[in-house]
Amino acid sequence: MQPNSRKKTDLLLMVALMPPTLIALNYFMLGEVYFSSFKNFGIASAVSLSVLLGVWIAQGMLAKKMLQLFPSHRDTVKRVVIFYSLNLTIVALTVTLICWIFDLFNILGFRFTMDAWTRSLIAGGICTIVNQAVYETEISFGRIRASQLEAEQLKKAQLQTQFDSLKEQVNPHFLFNSLNSLSSLITTDPYKAEEFVVEMSRVYRYLLRSNEEQLTTLQKELEFIESYNLLLKTRFASGFQPVIAVEEKMKEYLLPPMTLQLLIENAVKHNIVDPDAPLIVRLYTENGKLIVTNNLQKKNKAVVSNKIGLSNIIQKYKLLNCTDVEIKETANEFSVTLPLIKNTN
What does the DSSP assignment read for 148-184? Predict the structure, then answer.
């Protein structure tokens, strides 16, 4: 939730919860005399409100600190227990202070007795529990709303990825080159032509289904990339040389679908791919991350690019609350380091 929205919500909660808290505390402390006249009601409410406002602000700061220390929903129980304990302590001190003020200035004839203090303490404790429950409910609903918004944004990003990739793969150049390669294979190597068609169908099938999941396993991505790489190797022969060295234990980790295809496509698009100057694309895992690199041999003629592929990948990882994608370029190499997400299933 945005800071301004959070402040607005806190203000609305204070407006809604402060009056009943104030009335309950004064009634339990003073009894019927509190409602005996508008004057009594006004005096008692004004005195108590002057103290409660300060306490409410302090509790709000404490609540904010608790959310910073325990931001995850998995820490809710721990946060609530600690917050309740601290809150009840603050309430006990506040009730004691209010009772002392009323007794010191002889407001409405109040006397600080154990009975009056106990009643006030019970009222303050009940109000605190109720207010805290309302606050926690609002926090939970806020997280649900935020999660739904992030899910929608992630789905939108995935659809954009799918559209961009399909647009790239279905463009006349790609189809012409693929069909030209297929035509040559039919004449020279019918068996390989059949394999080419199978791999091509797998590529398109994966592209069409990629928006159905927010995350996929690295194993599935690598299987897809094998098909995609075969098309590129058929087209460029030894000019395209993929090298895959992924640890077996990392293959069950997760990442957004089509991430690898976008990176390989980006490398092919911006670099010379020729048997005399092969483009070497390496995919490997290191320290729980996936690294994709390629040697830099940029085309003489600059390629028009809106950099949708890289920005789309970065946006997806941000929506997934993962560590930043690292992009580095040296004189000889371009690399992208991707966080891999542990598969909790």
Answer: HHHHHHHHHHHHHHHHHHHHHHTSHHHHHHHHHHHHH
Q: With H, G, I as helix, E, B as strand and everything else as coil, classify residue 341.
A: strand
Residue whose pair of structure tokens reads 């990882």 in the numeric block: 317
Give the predicted TM-score (pTM) of the model.
0.53
pLDDT of residue 64: 82
Nearest to 116 by CA among 176, 31, 238: 31
Rounded Cα distance between 81 and 102, Å, is: 32
Sequence spans of domains, the chain: 3-146, 170-339
Residue 146: half-sphere exposure toward Cβ, Cα within 13 Å: 15
Looking at every residue in the chain, the average pLDDT score rounds to 83
Identify any residues that bridge with 341 across adjacent strands, giving them in sequence order: 254
What number does CATH give the domain 170-339?
Answer: 3.30.565.10
How many CB atoms sit inside 10 A of residue 60's CB? 16
Least confident residue range of 2-11, 104-113, 278-287, 315-324: 2-11
What pLDDT score does 170 carry? 42
Least confident segment among 9-13, 32-36, 194-198, 265-269: 9-13
